[in-house]
Amino acid sequence: MKKNWLLLSVIFAVMFVLAACNNDGKEAAKTGDGNKEKSTQTEPNKEDTAKFPMEVKNEGDAIKGGTLKVALVTDTPFKGVFIPELSDDAYDSTILDYAKNEIFELDGDFQVKDTGIAKLEVDKDNKKAKITIQGDVKWSDGQPLTADDLIYPYEIIGHPDYDGVRYDDDFENIVGAKEYHDGKEKTISGIKKIDDKSIEITFKKVSPAIYSVGDGLWGYAAPKHQLESIPVKDALIASDAVRKNPVTLGAFKIDKVVNGESVQLVANEHYFKGKPKLDKVVIEVVPSTSIGEALKTGKYDLAEHYPTNQFDSIKDLSNISIVSRPELSYSYIGFKVGKYDKANRKNIFDAKSKMNDESLRQAVGYAMDIESVTEKFYQGLRVRANSLIPPVFASYYDGTLEGYHYDPEKAKELLEKAGYKDVDGDGIREDKDGKKFTLRLAAMSGSDTDEAIAEYYRQNWKEVGLNVELTTGRLIEFNSFYDKVKADDPEIDMFMAAWKTGTNPSPAGLYGEGAEFNFSRFVSADLTKMLEDIDSEKSMDPDHRAKAFRTWQEYMSKTATTMPMYFRTELFPVNKRVKNFNVDYANETKSALQTIELTADAPVK
To answer: Which of 22, 88, 121, 288 is most buried, by the most CB atoms less than 10 A from its CB?
Structure first.
C-alpha cells in the first residue's frame, strides 16, 4: 500500500500499525462491484460523523507567522526515526508528515497526479516508469534535489545490510533488486539515471497498483549528499541525520528534538510550494488521559491521533472545531500460525501451530461483542469491520461480506464440533486431548478504556468456555507490544492491533509470503495466487481487479487468520485560531501546510 504500512500506528509504497482498539466513519459506502451504494444510517446513541467537516477556515485576520502547537496523543514516547525508509510506526510518520520527503501527490482516488515534486509516466507495455523532478526543487539545506536522490532510497532499502521492513516481495518486482540485495550485483540493474532530473525503473510486471505508488515504486526521495557516507547497517538508523537533523523536502524542517517527547520544526524557506506562513510547528507528546483538559484550556491548536473513546470530553468545547474523515486503516485481531524467517525474509506457516484451527479462530470472532463496544465506547466513531479493506476504497471494498458479528451460540457450536469440550464441568473448555486450554492475548496499553475493552472481550470468551489470559498479565506498551509481535513471541497466541494501510489498497505488503508485516505468518498457495492476481497485468482491467479483491476478502474472512474488528473515523480537534486546515484526501492538510495561518498569538481558551 502506498504510503507506508504503519504500525498503528507505513508499508510499501507507504504503511504503519496503530493501537489495540480503533474507529470508523458512517458515510455512504459502495460495495465491492463499485457501482452499488450501501447507505449506513445513523443509529441511536451513535454520533453522526457526517456532520463534521473535513475543513475549517475560521474567520478573522491572520497574524504574521506564529507557532502551531500540536499535541501528539500517545501514552508512549515516539521512537524518533525520521526517514521513511526505516520508520515503521504512525507516530514518527505523523511528525515526519510536516517535513516529509514525499515526491508524489495523489488525488481523491489515491492516484498519482502531476502537481507534486515529481511527475510519474508509466509505459505499461514495456513495464517501465519514468520519474521526473519538476522544476528546481531544493532540499531544506539548500542543495538541489537530483536524480541521485530519487535512486538512493532504493539503494537503502535494497542494500544487503538493510534490516528494515520495506524490503519485501513488492520491492523485488524491480528488475535487479533481488540480485542487489543478495550481494550479487553492486547496483540495481532495473534503475537507470536518465539525466540530472529523471530516472527510469524497469519492473517485472506493471499493475494498477503502480498508479497508487505500488508495484515496488517508492514515493520518497532521500538526500544522498547527507546519507551516502553513513553505513546502512546499524549506523544509519542511529545517526543524527535520521534522529536529529534530517535534510527534508517538506513545508517545515526539524530544528530541535527532545527524544521521545517533542519536536520543534521551523519554516522551510526552500519548500517547493513556497515558504509557509507559519514560523514554527511544535509537536509534543500528550498522554491520552490529559488531552481533553489540554484542549479545553487552550494549550494546543491541534491534536493528532485523538482517541475517539474520549470524544465526549471535547464535543461541547466552544474553543475548538472538530474535523473528521474516514481513516485508511482498520483494527484487527490476529492469530499466530507460524514464524518469520529473518535470514530468508519469508513467513513460514506452521500447520501444527496451536492456532491453526479454523473453527477455533472463527469461534473467537463470533464470541466478541464488537457491536456493543463500538456503541458504548466509541459512539459510532468506530463500527464493526466486515473486511480487511476499508470502505473508503469504494471500488474494492466488499460490503456484502457478513464478517464476524456477535453470535455466542455459533461460537459454542463451532468449538463443540471442533473438539474443545468442557471435560471437568468448570465452564472452561479443554483442548481436543482433554488437557487444560488457555489462549494468550497480547493487547496494547493506553487509557482505562482500553483495559475495560480488553476485559470485556475476555468475559465474552469466557462465556463460550474459552480461558483467555493477557500476555505478560497486563496490557503492553506500544513499542514493546510490536517488538513482541514482530518477534513471534511464544507467549502470544493472538493479538489486537491495527493497520494504517496507506493509499494503495493492495494487501501484498501485509499478507504476502515475504511481507514482514504479515504478523499472523499465514501463507498458502491459494493466498499467494490471490495476491498476485490483485496486482497482475490482468488487473489493469478494473472489473478484473475488483473481482480479485472480492475473492481475496472472502478467502481471508473464511480462514480468519487475521480478523477485522473496527473501521475507524479519524478526529482532528482544531483550535478556533487556526485558519485553512483541511484533511480531505483530495487536498490533504500535509500537502497544504504552507497555507495554514493563525488569527491570534495564542490558542483560544
So the answer is: 22
DSSP 71: E
Distance of CA 166 to the CA centre of its chain: 13
Per residue in 225-242, pLDDT (tens digit) is 999 999 999 999 999 999
- Distance between alpha carbon 288 and the CA centroid of its chain, in Å? 20
Residue 104 has, within 13 A of its CA and on its CB side, a CA count of 27
- Classify 181 as helix, strand or coil: helix
- All three cell numbers of 14, joined, read 507507504
Q: Is the pTM higher than 0.90?
A: no
Phi, psi angle pair for 496, to nearest 5°: -105, 125
How many angstroms separate the Cα of 6 from the Cα of each of 94, 256, 360, 510, 516? 10, 24, 28, 10, 12
Three cell numbers written together for 91: 507516530
Query: SS3 sequence, 235-259?
Result: HHHHCHHHHCCCCCCCCEEEEEEEC
Chain segment 125-143, per-residue pLDDT in tens: 999 999 999 999 999 999 9
Closest alpha carbon to 105 in 217, 12, 237, 212: 212
Per-residue burial over 269-297, b if 16 or more Cβ lie within 10 Å, else e, is: ebbbbeebbbbbbbbbbbebeebbebbbe
> Which residue from 10, 479, 95 is spatially nearest to 284, judged by alpha carbons?
95
The dihedrals phi and psi of 518, each to the nearest 5 degrees, come to -75, 75
Cell of 580: 485553512
Instruction: Return the C-alpha cell found at 489.
Output: 513471541
